Amino acid sequence: MSSRRSRSRQSSGSRITDDQIIDLVSKLQQLIPELRGRRSDKVSASKVLQETCNYIRNLHRKVDGLSDRLSQLLASTETDSDQAAIIRSLLME
Amino acid sequence: MASFIPNLESAPDTCPEFKRRKRRTTDEKPASFHSHQRNQRIKRWRTQREQHIYSSKLIQALRRSRRTSSAAKEVHETADIVLAVLAKGTTRWSKAILTARKMARHKKAKVAANTRLRKPAVSREKRKTPVVQRKLKVLGRLVPGCRKLSFPNLLEETSDYIAALEMQVRAMTAITEFLAGSGPQPPADRLASNVNS
């Protein structure tokens, strides 16, 4: 970490050690449910990155599906003011 | 009623001075500051309270935009924007989402922005294998506004982004289930059973 230098606003150009990479990759691994339990020396950096990308894409897809569902539900509710008030009051316990 | 938004993050990283400094320079601060920051970040997006706040803000926003259109794409955009607003400008991905929205209204500016983003980054990280480099690039494209970040910064953005997305999924799922449940039936009865279950 002492090898980092402050340059321009662009963050390229800093030298990163291999150890740093290993450390960061293992941290990333902990965020991915699929890889969380596995030992970090058993999972390659490339695999961690791949799974991270897959996971994010998965989450995006879920939100897409939920947005679709929500838009249908919202379109079908006529008295939205009543329901929205109920939802809000429930959520604000 | 809506003006109860608590100050979720009173941590120093939201004050303007800190924002002006680059994230990399946090290494020069004392350890106690680091661990405090880290704890704040770990809790972020994961509390019930934040989820409730997000849900209520999302519903408000959806109600407002409902008059124009309630297409799936709009809902998704609204959900992302409310999420980005909740981040309070502390992360690059959230700023990118809000900027993209602004840019979309001025098409010229958007083209200029894309051109800027497409410039190749000068990279000295030759120690990473090409495979890892490639995947990093893909990751950088998935997280909004993070195409040119170094690995450590990209990682930080990614972890925050993932936590935020997970909360988004939880919140929208809850809202959907609730709306679906109370749709066809009279709200009063359904609510009672939902609350008790």
Provide an overview of this structure.
The complex is a heterodimer of chains A (93) and B (197). Chain A contains three helices and no strands. Chain A has helices spanning 18-31, 45-76, 80-91. Chain A starts with 17 loop residues before the first helix and ends with a helix. Mean pLDDT of chain A is 77; it is low at 3-13. In chain B, 67% of the residues lie in helices and 0% in strands. Chain B has helices spanning 16-20, 31-43, 48-65, 72-86, 92-105, 107-118, 130-142, 151-182, 187-196. The longest helix of chain B has 32 residues, at 151-182. The radius of gyration of chain B is 20 Å and the shape is globular. Chain A: This is BHLH domain-containing protein. Chain A: Keywords: Growth regulation, Nucleus, Transcription, Transcription regulation. Chain A: Residues 5-59 form the BHLH domain. Chain A: InterPro entries: bHLH_dom, HLH_DNA-bd_sf, PRE.
Short description:
With 93 residues, chain A is mainly α.
User: Helix count of chain A, per DSSP?
Assistant: 3
Gyration radius of chain B (Cα, Å) is: 20 Å
- Amino-to-carboxy terminus distance of chain B: 27 Å
Structural class of chain A: mainly alpha
Rg of chain A from C-alpha positions? 22 Å
Write down the overall geometry of chain A: elongated
Mean pLDDT of chain A: 77
State the helical fraction of chain A.
55-70%
Strand content of chain B: under 5%
